[in-house]
Amino acid sequence: MNNSLEPIKRTRFYRDKINGKIFGVCAGIADYTGVDVLWVRVGTVALTVCGVGFIPLIYFAMAIFADNKPAGLYLDREEQKFWQGVRQSPTRTAREVKARFRDIDRRLADVEQFYVTSNPRLSAEIEKLR
Fold first, then answer.
1. What is the greatest pairwise CA distance in the chain?
2. Is a pLDDT exceeding 70 seen at residue 1?
């Protein structure tokens, strides 16, 4: 259980009882992986019908031991997509964040260049700081 003083762990698996049908396990798997919940449910039922006997055991174990999804886990859909990406591939997500920062840095350098070239006094002040 998550108390209000403990930070929310966004890389953990949580049951999603709000979007779930029975215990929220399939909805939690869908939220965790970013796969549509319909496909998770279809896969779970198909594996169970095909005779994979441990699927119901795993389902009920997850229903018993997994925590409920905290109310404020994501601020918006974009943040949800970001954390799903982190769970799927932390290295790729880190590369994407670094690329965004490089792009911001480049754009700021372009803005600085524009203002410095059009303002010689500002250019002299920046050179003094270097």
1. 78
2. no
